[in-house]
Amino acid sequence: MAEKTFKYVILGGGVAAGYAAREFAKQGVRPGELAIISKEAVAPYERPALSKAYLFPEGTARLPGFHVCVGSGGERLLPEWYKEKGIELILSTEIVKADLASKTLVSAAGEVFKYHILIVATGSTVFRLTDFGVQGADSKNILYLREIDDADKLVEAIKAKKNGKAVIVGGGYIGLELSAALRINNFDVTMVFPEPWCMPRLFTADIAAFYESYYTDKGIKIIKGTVAVGFAADANGEVKEVKLKDGRSLEADLVVVGVGGKPLTTLFKGQVEEEKGGIKTDAFFKTSVPDVYAVGDVVTFPLKMYNDLTRVEHVDHARKSAEQAVKAIFASEQGKAVEEYDYLPYCLSRAFDLSWQLYGDNVGDTVIFGDNNLTSAKPKFGSYWIKDGKIVGAFLEGGSPDENKAIAKVAKTQPSVNNVEVLTKEGLSFACKI
């Protein structure tokens, strides 16, 4: 097959790819210089929509409604936009070999792509129970959620098993958001996870207790401290039962598994330096290989404010790291400088009528403040994390845009705490006056 050569290639078609493309256009990329190679069949879209509005029974989100960059309030980049900018979208194309030394990518169909500068935006993939040899994990209607194809399969199952029983395996982001979505679809929902409380990487026991009580009030059953060890299927091969390690079994018409993910680095093993499970970069997202950059979920980068290397699986970082890398590429070409990436860790979620945001680091002593009473019309509460006498992280449920900005500022500026009792009493007002 004939080779195709581009000055710039973005490998991956997720959120980071879309935001990188927008920044390339801002920087003045010329027609024909940039290609995006994606194994997905659609132009880059805002992935968080899949676990929320895409699954709702009414007012569902569908493409082209959530193509990037609407998730951050920007222009929606439809497929035509790429064509207008002279950016080649190469979709439904899986790259199976990457030779960084010769700057060559080869697809499953044998197509060869050459580049001068590569941006790796391959993201992450979900852990599947079949990876761990769980008995019956290949039964029909055991589903995962990462890409739009996964969401379509889940929508089909929701329709086919209307008002049925759903078991959610995992108590993190996907577990909480999909439990809510399936309950809204009138499913009988049970969440199962091994940890002592939900969202253990982010929540304290106190924070988690509020959400678990809220979910229980919504009719969602929560089983903690055990895991799914097997599945039974009916004569059609469809899942009908989830077997738990503690000996219990749960009826299920469909199962959704959300037990974490792993960065997609396989193509680059042995060719590029890795650390903490991701491709290691500097503050401009340059890798150890000249002319190769990496962004988003796949990258381990310097977190300036904590003087540490970290990997972040979040849409906010995917957007911002992509923009930073493209700015750095053009600055390098023009002999200019850009500021180092100075990221404030950030997480958020929405489910039912709830909406929370967390900024900074969730380490140290905690101070809980506000109204976390389930009977309140609109609970609003939060937490500060204090380490070495300073606030290093802040969480808020039910905040307004201005209040969320205030807790972000606290996490960024890390003010000293002289009196924990006073801080507890002031609560959110402390952040609002910083």
UniProtKB/TrEMBL annotation:
SUPFAM superfamilies from the UniProt entry: FAD/NAD(P)-binding domain, FAD/NAD-linked reductases, dimerisation (C-terminal) domain
Pfam family, one: MDHAR3-like_C
Top-level taxon: Eukaryota
Alphabetized UniProt keyword annotations: FAD, Flavoprotein, NAD, NADP, Oxidoreductase, Redox-active center
EC class of the enzyme, as a word: oxidoreductase
UniProt-recorded Gene Ontology molecular function terms: monodehydroascorbate reductase (NADH) activity
Residue ranges annotated for the Monodehydroascorbate reductase 3-like C-terminal domain, each copy included: 344-431
Catalytic activity: 2 monodehydro-L-ascorbate radical + NADH + H(+) = 2 L-ascorbate + NAD(+)
InterPro entries noted in UniProt: FAD-oxidoreductase/Apoptosis, FAD/NAD-bd_sf, FAD/NAD-binding_dom, FAD/NAD-linked_Rdtase_dimer_sf, MDHAR3-like_C
Residues annotated as domain FAD/NAD(P)-binding: 6-321
Entry cofactors: FAD
Enzyme Commission number: 1.6.5.4
Keyword Ribosomal protein (UniProt): no
One GO CC term, this protein: cytoplasm
Function of the molecule: Catalyzes the conversion of monodehydroascorbate to ascorbate, oxidizing NADH in the process.
Protein family (similarity comment): Belongs to the FAD-dependent oxidoreductase family.
Protein name (Swiss-Prot/TrEMBL): monodehydroascorbate reductase (NADH)
